[in-house]
Amino acid sequence: MAKANLVVGQSGGPTAVINNSLVGVIHQALAEDQIDGIYGMLHGIRGVMDENFVDLRRESAQTLEQLRTTPGSALGTVRYKVKPEDYDRLLDVFVKYDIRYFMYIGGNDSMDTVYQIGQVAKQRNFELHSIGVPKTIDNDLAQTDHSPGYGSAARFVAMAIRNSGYDTESMGADGPFKLMEIMGRNAGWLTAASALARESEYDPPHLIYLPERRISPEKLAADAEEVYREHGYCVVAVSEGIVDENGQPYASATGRTMRDAFGHEVKQGVVEAVAEIILAKTNIRARFDKPSYLQRSFIQLASPVDQEEAYRAGIEGVRHAVNGASGQMISFVREPGPEYAIRYELADLSQIANQEHTVSDEYINAAGNGVTQDFMDYVRPLIGPPLPSFARLAKHAVAKR
Amino acid sequence: MAKANLVVGQSGGPTAVINNSLVGVIHQALAEDQIDGIYGMLHGIRGVMDENFVDLRRESAQTLEQLRTTPGSALGTVRYKVKPEDYDRLLDVFVKYDIRYFMYIGGNDSMDTVYQIGQVAKQRNFELHSIGVPKTIDNDLAQTDHSPGYGSAARFVAMAIRNSGYDTESMGADGPFKLMEIMGRNAGWLTAASALARESEYDPPHLIYLPERRISPEKLAADAEEVYREHGYCVVAVSEGIVDENGQPYASATGRTMRDAFGHEVKQGVVEAVAEIILAKTNIRARFDKPSYLQRSFIQLASPVDQEEAYRAGIEGVRHAVNGASGQMISFVREPGPEYAIRYELADLSQIANQEHTVSDEYINAAGNGVTQDFMDYVRPLIGPPLPSFARLAKHAVAKR
User: Fold this and answer.
1) Is B39's CB within 8 Å of A397's CB?
2) What does the pLDDT average to over B279-293?
3) Separation in Å, CA A264 to CA A241, B260, B269, B306
4) Number of Cβ within a 10 Å radius of residue B110
5) What is the CATH number of the domain that holds A79?
6) pLDDT (tens digit per residue) in B164-218
7) Do the chains contact at B97 and A170, CB–CB below 8 Å?
8) How far is CA A103 from the centre of its chain?
9) Contact between chains at A393 and B56 (C-beta distance less than 8 A)
10) Whether residue B22 is found in the same domain as residue B138
11) Is the per-residue pLDDT at A262 higher than 90?
């Protein structure tokens, strides 16, 4: 193929390491003779529709290096769901700008976009190499061992639970219940990763609730009370997407719907609902943290493994596109053996687009309030070095007089 | 004075560095010949009432060193408000255990406890050296330049705003409003510190609301809309204690009171109320972060200045007690001159107990939605080294075809 232009975009929620994938794409594109212009689309696919491209060849090496430790999506991102009638327009733009390499860094929806646009290109007989570069803190992409962004969010969540757990432990009877609401509406991977906070089996989080297992308010309250009675405090990791025994979200299930002064129904937060349930059972007000967007932007706690893999995914994407691949996503395959290692392969987007990979059964404990050793073995290498250890006083009692 | 025992306790909300003060007390007590037993009270003053003491001489040097990077209050903390009738009982215990050095690490309420117990000791003619070691992320203690715990919480909040700000900036039209609820019910010091996130005047936080200035919902919404129109996004740092034009808390002001399905009044969160106000004005749903207890426990982002000062405050407390001081608190006095330096003095507890030092007028801008340069000069040295810088793409436009 003659020289042609490459365009790269970022889509969906940012992660702490998504700019590593962008920099990987740019670095590899700079190294490939077949690539002429290296364009960035501003705010994802919307930048293509509006022909808002920036020239990434003109960015300084220093900026690119610093982007590897900058959160957010440096090109701007988008949540626009591409409509069937948009694809012709998108391809028109690619034709007009001689864009034959399309690298899209994103999650499920974005992979669908990459797939669809590849199909339209085929129909119109336009040689386009469209490659998806996976990105999601939710870790819910199919056909890959895991996705860049997850390891860093997991490291942040584990550290946050360990920190907040020590704080809660010291409160004793004056604040024994702590809840943390963790992202992932349909997939509990990130909530499950909170288990990495534990150094012993008595450490927080004592309970972990994922969207994959229904949990009745009664059972949840009983679980929490039991832990409190046993340990004197109880730290709970709660997915934002947990559902009750009828499959109803906690955030809006009957009895927990909130109304403002005008009578409008307001969606109550999940931890607020759980706190209400614990209050009703124990007469103790639970405290909670909602780190929300800090989970996907806390670059200071990024996993070095994740940073490097996100970068590599960008590099591999360009390499494969130039070698003729299209309609595929960079897929992480874990090498067998005791040492953690990843092989980068390609997976068909038709198997990925709009799929949702939730937490597997063998990773959730029988009681539905924790994770298994298999899950720990899966997740541990992804967050990089062990979390820093904390100390507890030995507390040798002074004899009473 | 003959050799006597020392007791140390921790009180109120933990901070990321409160264990540094504990270790400072222990290290200095170990060095003082006049001190015999070094006791820790479990869960603050409650440990005295219940005679729950631990022998801190038996803790290993390694544990003490590791406690300097461990959040929470290692001895356990307490929120119990001591009643007048308790003081005789407390002194009885001190007499029984020959405790003549009383070091209490805490905030306003705790300083009152130290003061009162000192008064009772005087009345009963018992030689007691009671010293307060300041601690509070709220920074609301009087008679001191600042308090240990504040610098680290300030560093966390600034970093969190910078991280979440880059995330928000990249969302563009798909999520332009970000609110962060910051601790400090009556004093806005910590919320004000969010301004440290800025590298340029256009950077987040664009608006800062403190409890010290009333702000009407109308003005707040107009402020936010104006920033959004000018910059394309708007990041707001909101104290949990902001009040409207009538002095009513946002969390419960009329029109924003929430009721659950049983009709019970539920206190709505502050950022939820602000989000509602912005939605009504702009028809855009604001996103928010509530890092809550992470603000006081995120040791990984502690200020090294704060860690060292918290440790020194513990050391100075014991030194002064052994030298005969009592009924006083370790006070931080800033040395004049261009280089930041602190001198440790003593301040009378009668001037501190139950006082609340709020943000001074000259630190708040005229519009009541930001801080002044004077405040920046005050706060900058407290968080230690500058925050790590991030990069933005230069975004050279590709000519349209």
Assistant:
1) no
2) 95
3) 22, 12, 17, 46
4) 28
5) 3.40.50.450
6) 999 999 999 999 999 999 999 999 999 999 999 999 989 999 999 999 999 999 9
7) no
8) 20
9) yes
10) yes
11) no
Name the residue type at position A91. Answer: L
Chain A positions touching B266 (Cβ under 8 A) are 258, 272, 276
Cis peptide before B205 (omega within 30 of 0): yes
Percent of chain A scoring above 90 in pLDDT: 91
Measured in angstroms, the CA of A353 and the nearest CA of chain B are apart by 22
| Alpha carbons B372 and B49: distance in angstroms, whole number | 46
- Candidates A75, A203, A297, A383: best to mutate against B (most CBs of B within 10 A) is A297
Are residues B182 and B284 located together in one domain of the fold?
yes
Using an 8 Å Cβ cutoff, are A287 and A168 in contact?
Answer: yes
Q: Which two tokens stand for residue A130?
A: 């469209």
The verdict on a CB contact (< 8 Å) between A300 and B169 is: no
- From the candidates B112, B138, B244, B289, give the one annotated as an active-site residue: B138
Judge whether B305 and B380 are in contact, CB under 8 Å.
no
Same domain, B18 and B135: yes
Separation between Cα atoms, residue A88 and residue A93, nearest integer Å: 9
- Nearest-CA distance from B214 to chain A in Å? 22
Residue B394 lies in a domain: no
How many CB contacts within 8 angstroms connect chain A with chain B? 262
Interface touch B66/A258, C-beta < 8 Å: no
> Does the pLDDT of residue B253 top 80, yes or no?
no
Q: What is the CATH number of the domain that holds A365?
A: 3.40.50.460
Cα separation, A318 vs A32, in Å, equals 9
Q: Residue A328's beta-bridge partner residues?
A: A131, A348
In a domain, B400, yes or no: no
% chain B with pLDDT above 90: 91
Report the chain A residue with the minimal C-alpha distance to residue B96. Answer: A401
Question: How far apart are alpha carbons B131 and B9 in whole angstroms?
Answer: 11
B145 and B228 in a single domain? The answer is no
Model confidence at B2, pLDDT cuts 50, 70, 90, reads: confident
Same domain, A231 and A270: yes
Mean pLDDT across chain A: 94
Average pLDDT over residues B36-65: 98
- Number of domains within chain B: 2
Within-domain flag for B140:
yes
In a domain, A252, yes or no: yes
A-chain residues within 8 Å CB-CB of B67? 391, 393
> Catalytic site residues of A?
138
Residues of chain B found within 8 Å of residue A392, distances taken between Cβ atoms = 63, 70, 74
Choose, out of B166, B168, B169, B179, the residue to mutate when testing the contact with A (most A CBs < 10 Å).
B166
Task: Respond yes or no: is residue B138 known to be catalytic.
Answer: yes
Tell me what ipTM this predicted complex has.
0.95
Closest to B174 (Cβ–Cβ): which among A79, A276, A296? A79
Same domain? For B271 and B138 the reply is no
pLDDT in tens, B220-229: 999 999 999 9
Residue B74 has pLDDT above 50, yes or no: yes
Q: Is the pLDDT of residue A258 over 60?
A: no
Residue B308 has φ and ψ, to the nearest 5°, of -65, -40
Whether residue B168 and residue A261 make contact (CB cut-off 8 A), yes or no, is no
Q: Are residues A166 and A291 in the same domain?
A: yes
Single-letter residue type at B187: A
Count CB-CB contacts under 10 A for residue B97: 19
Q: Which CA distances in Å does B98 have to A395, A396, B5, B117, B212?
A: 20, 19, 6, 15, 45
Asked if A331 and A367 sit in the same domain, the reply is no
Q: Which residue range is the domain that position A202 belongs to?
A: 155-298+360-383
Q: What is the pLDDT of residue B255?
A: 45
Distance, CA of A395 to CA of A308 (rounded, Å): 42
Chain B CB contacts of A23 below 8 Å:
none
Is the pLDDT at B254 greater than 70? The verdict is no
